[in-house]
Structures are given as structure tokens and as C-alpha cells.
Amino acid sequence: MDVNSIVGCVTFNISLLNKLILKNKLSRCDRMNTSDKIYHKKIGIEDLLHLLKQNMLVYLEQGAAEPRYIIQELINNADKIPSINVLVTPVPHINKMQFSYDENCDHWNIYSLFGTPETKHQIRSGRVKYVPVSTSEIPNILRKTLIPDIAIIQVSPPDSRGFCNLGVSVDTLPIVIKNAKMVVAQFNPRMARVCGQSEIHVSEIDYFIEEYSPIIEFSPPDPREKDDIIAEQVAKLIPDGATIQIGIGRIPNAILGKLKDKNDLGLHSGLISEKMIELLKSGVITGKYKKINQYKMVGTAMLGTEELYHFSHQNSAIELHPVTHTHNIWLARDLDHFISINSAMEVDLTGQVNAESLDGDQISAVGGQLDFTRMARLSKEGKAILALPSTSKGKSNIVPQLSASVPISIPRSEVDIVVTEYGSVQLRHESILERAKKLISIAHPDYRTQLEDWLHEYIVT
């Protein structure tokens, strides 16, 4: 298949931005024609404040589609809002959660399903109540445990059929919308209309606030020399025709940069980034051998620049689906050669992984890492790869044992392949002793003797 027919060859420029804005922006007359009821659903911030009642559970959408205008107005008017419960799933470095450290919001009780560097002190103090959970389990929390009274989200305005689009973040929103007692949406003409399971009919929205504002953008830092070496090691493990899952950041970007010579890769991931689009445009990612969502780049959200969002607008090669699809481990039966690629902060000599805590602070979460690890292990010829530098801030990331205060993000029974700049090792089905020896072989040379001494004292003897 001609790559141009897959990609749609969308070139970003100012005229495209203007066309998108004009196409999405609905006049009052358009809205009236779309639905007889939509006009009286329009409210302002003061109206929203009156909807918030004591002890309500308020879900605030996060990720790139965070309705920042509404959230900022809630913070500005915090003194008019009673004690409420707030539920969020923030993305590290993206969602700042100002309300978690603004003293005017001290009477809000905050529950977070993800840790971030920005909220580590609030989590430690108890100001933010962190709930550890895998991404695949979040829908059950939203259905059974933390059921929102009000969900505040951001979408595109409705089209001529009356459908809004969830835009750059689908994630758990279909479950949130279905279970919340009330849905308040920010209609933003700048929101891209993305293909996949991403539409919501205006009848499912109780009230809306119109606000034209930029979508959150993110550019990860450039890879370091060490990251490039790790990336080369990982690239060797990815065969042509494989379907990959990978995150966003220095090491993921370095890895994606080393895949330019691969052929017919597929993508089934959590987040979609700029680097992935580069591989789509160049014909490296085609999805040719995927048994499900063939020829489609699949994720549950995207995070990047305005160029990424506009490239994805109505681009049939890119689909966003809810986590009930992207993180469903049983899809592994239809994803041969599925390779998950994730990072970690520490791995101990038995294979236990810490991917969420640094110096005792919760700065991330297990998220989808365990889900994708299990998918890769269930997939025919699948691989679950953990890529990390051998050291950070003068300390070894290969450690004898994880400390008692550190969460185990990936149990040793689930670990498969570990990669550092010193090589890669296969741990699946290996004994504790063999695992330890292999991990020491890819530790930084300055720490190998110390690790070997521990091994001989506590395991060999």
C-alpha cells in the first residue's frame, strides 16, 4: 500500500490551522440547528459554581485535553465553592494541579490515580490522596468506587450530526461520561477531531462553556549520548513487522529515532507522540501485519505540539480508543510480535522493578506499564523490554534489593528483558541466581564488584 494513502500526507501550516478553526467553530445559529436543546445548555462560570455542591465528587480531565480555562476559573473562585472531592489522573510534567497547593483550595479533597513530580510533596503530606492502580483497572474504579457526580471535560464543538469529538485524549472518558451524574464540557474550536472511538453526542453533555484556548503542548528534552546507546540496544530487539508500545520522553524518543531502517512496524500504545508520526510519514509504521486495527496507528491519547494535533485531525491513519481497548491484555492474542518498551528507575537483582518512586517520593505510577508488560508476554513472539540507564545522579540503578519503602511496579515474575547502555539481558524463566549474574553484567562497571559481593553473601552462600 502506498504510504501516502495511509498517512494522508497532511502538511501543517497556518492556513490549515485557520481552516480547522473555521470548520469547528459553530455560530449560535449552527448550534440551534444541530440540536433544539443545545442553546439552553450553554452556561458561564458563575452557573457552574452553583452546580457544585457539598461533598460532590468532581472529575477533572487531565492530559493534553485538560480544560485549563475552567479549572483556573474554579481556582480563582475557590472561596465560592464548598468542600468538594476532586478526582484526577494527571500526566507528569503536563498537568500542574495548581489546586493541590493553592491555599484557597485547601477545603478540596483531592484523589489522584497517578503520581507526578509536581505533586510529590502533596502526596507525601497526605494533601493529595494517591490511589495506586494499573490503567486497565481505572474503569472499574470509575464504575464502582469513585463515581463522579460531575465530570468536567474538553471537547470540540458539535458537528452537523450533533457529535462532539474528545480530541487528543480519549483515555477513560467514555467510562467517565457514561457513569457521571452530570457532564460539563468546554467547547473548544481548537480541539482536533481525531478518528477512532472518540465521539460523544451532544445529548450526553448536560452543560457546556465556550472557550477558545490553546491545547496543551509538550516537547520532551533531547536524548543524551547514554540514551542513544540504550536506544541502539533496544532497536536490535525489534524485528520488522513487530507492533510496538512505547512511552514519551528522552529514552523513548531516542529509541524511536533508531527505528528508521525498520519495515512495516505497527503501533498499539498509550500515548502517541511526534516521533511516532515521523515514522508514520516515512513509511516505517504501516500496521500492515496487525490483526486488529490493521493499517492504523492506535493509542488512547496524544501529547506533543500543535503540529501533531493538526496532523491527526480527521487523519484516518490515526485512531484513539478508550483504555478498555488499548490496555486490554487479551488483545495480545491478536497482536503477534507485540513489543512493549518501558522505562524504570531501579531494578533489583531478582528482577523486581521500581518505575514510580524516587528518593521516597511518588513521582509517577505503574500506569499502563504492567498491562503492556503482560500483553507482551502473552503475545506470540512478544517481548517486554525495560530500558534504563545504569546510573542516575551518581547511584546505580541496578540495586541488590529494592528498599521496603519502594513500590514494586513490576513483580519479578513478570519481568522479561532489561536493557542498559551496557547491553541487554533476558530474565524470563531464569533462576534468581542467573538473573542476578545477568543484571550485574549490564550494571555500571563501578558498581559490579559491590553487587557481586552482595550476591555471594546473601544468595550464593
Automatic annotation (TrEMBL):
Domain Acetyl-CoA hydrolase/transferase N-terminal: 46-215
Record domain Acetyl-CoA hydrolase/transferase C-terminal: where: 304-453
Family matches, as Gene3D superfamilies: 4-hydroxybutyrate coenzyme like domains (3.30.750.70), Acetyl-CoA hydrolase/transferase C-terminal domain (3.40.1080.20), Glutaconate Coenzyme A-transferase (3.40.1080.10)
GO biological process: acetate metabolic process
InterPro entries (UniProt xref): AcetylCoA_hyd_C, AcetylCoA_hyd_C_sf, ActCoA_hydro, ActCoA_hydro_N, NagB/RpiA_transferase-like
Xref: Pfam families: AcetylCoA_hyd_C, AcetylCoA_hydro
GO molecular-function terms, A-Z: acetate CoA-transferase activity
Keywords: Transferase
Superkingdom as given in the UniProt entry: Bacteria
Keyword Cell division: no
Family, as annotated: Belongs to the acetyl-CoA hydrolase/transferase family.
Protein's recorded name: 4-hydroxybutyrate CoA-transferase
Species of origin: Salinibacillus xinjiangensis
